[in-house]
Each structure stands twice: as C-alpha cells, then as structure tokens.
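thought: fold this chain, then report.
action: predict
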Amino acid sequence: MCSYSGFSLAIPMSAVSSIFIYNEKADFKYHYNSENRNTYISLPVLFNCPFSRAYHGIILKFGETDNEVAEDKIILLSTEIEKEKEIPSNRLYSIPKVFCYMQFSSIFKGIFFNSNSSADDLTLLLNPEQLVQNIQKEIIK
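observation:
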C-alpha cells in the first residue's frame, strides 16, 4: 500500500514479481527504455501528485521473461510502500459502473473504505493489467 494525496493505493501481490528501492527522479508518466526494453510507469505523475516522490519500484509478473536479467519488465514507480495488508474480499467494493466511461477509473479493481470511512481514508485497488494495456496503447500512438 502506497499513500497519495487523498487516497492510498493497493497493488495485488499476485501481480508483483519483486520490489526495489528507486533513487532517481521520475518526472514522466511512462517511459520505455529501448536498451533493456523495460517500461517504467510513474504512479505519482500518473495520479497527478507532483509532490509525491517515487521511492519504490514494483516489477510486475506479466510482461517479463524468465531470465535473471532486468529486461522486458513492466515496472511501476510508486511512493514509499508503507505496509502489506490483506484486504478481505467482502470489504472490497466494485467501482461503480458509471465510472467505467472514464478511462482513468478502469485501472482500478475496487475500493476499500478503512475503518473511519472518511473520504480521505480510502484505498483503491489497482488493476495492473488494465493500467499496462492503457499505457501500451499510449506508447503505440
């Protein structure tokens, strides 16, 4: 789980291959490195949180080869990963269908309201596969 302005982001562990410390500035939404064929997606920039710095890189399982070399990977750059938390499926709510018309909302699988249920205390569950599909469409344009 990573904090952003007004919400937290959860990434399903089933989509995560590994996590590493990221020390460089990520002032781009996405970047394709033609040398190692890695695609980097900066979540702080994508979520319009320019003052949130990317501290961690999250290598996704899909889009990678079986080799040990860091090539052909899809890497999410995110704010500091603060904790691992299991969200019970009965507390995870679907994104309302009306938001499906907004391309941005399709990258989320669900909403989890923390115990105090305030608007600033919600967690969005990322749909990494949809996010990558959206970014790949942008790269091809």
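thought: worth noting. The two ends are 31 Å apart (CA to CA).
final: tokens above.
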